[in-house]
Amino acid sequence: MTKVKKEKPVEEETGGTEKSYEELIASVNAIANPLASRKLSKKLYKCVKKAAKVKQIRRGVKEVQKFINKGEKGIVVFAGDTLPIDVYCHLPIMCEDRNLPYAYVPSKADLGSSAGSKRPTCVIMIKPHDEYKEAYDECLEDVASLPKPV
Questions:
Q1: How far from 138 is each of 39, 119, 145, CA to CA, in Å?
Q2: Sign of CA dihedral 91, 95, 100, 105
Q3: Quick one: which of 4, 58, 101, 105 is 20 to 30 A from 116 by CA?
Q4: CB neighbours of 58 closer than 8 A, spacing ≥ 6?
Q5: Roughly how many angstroms between the first and final C-alpha of the chain, as a whole number?
Q6: Which helix (H) or strand (E) holds 109?
Q7: 84: cis peptide before it, omega within 30°?
Q8: In the predicted model, what is the mean pLDDT of residues 60-83?
Q9: CA pair distance 101, 96, nearest whole angstrom
């Protein structure tokens, strides 16, 4: 008379549900420009992960917008697959007005997980800090060298 628990099917840890960079790019929205390359995306994810460990990130549209208005400096990372676009289409203009470097990465799920969250995140600001200065400076240089949208 005891209940038997059904075992959940275990997906392989070698990327069972992970999509390739090309598949992620296919679902990117129209305003995602400048889009980070595969290599730069990985660097940005690593930098976000390091910044999250020392609590030097701003996560979410509302929080990032508030601190851009306050004049905080950092790199702004947008998720390219966010829909509807109206959620965050005003933020790149704010970044350009304040000379903040910004870039788009293809996946909001990857962006959220790199920040240590279980939920997808559509925008994150990475603040500079001494603990990950090399990674931050490298990302800053690469993001600043990306061509700006017309």
A1: 12, 27, 11
A2: positive
A3: 101
A4: 64, 67, 72, 74, 124, 125, 127
A5: 69
A6: helix 108-114
A7: yes
A8: 93
A9: 8
Please list, residue by residue across 59-81, b when 16 or more beta carbons sit within 10 angstroms of its beta carbon and e when fewer do.
Answer: bbbeebbeebeeeeebbbbbbbb
Instruction: Tell me the three state secondary structure of residue 126.
Output: strand
Angle 133-144/38-53 helices, nearest 10 degrees?
Answer: 140
Q: Residues with Cβ < 8 Å from 65, sequence gap 6 or more? A: 90, 91, 94
77 three-state secondary structure: strand
Q: What percent of the chain has pLDDT over 90?
A: 67
With 70 as the cut, is the pLDDT of residue 6 above it?
A: no
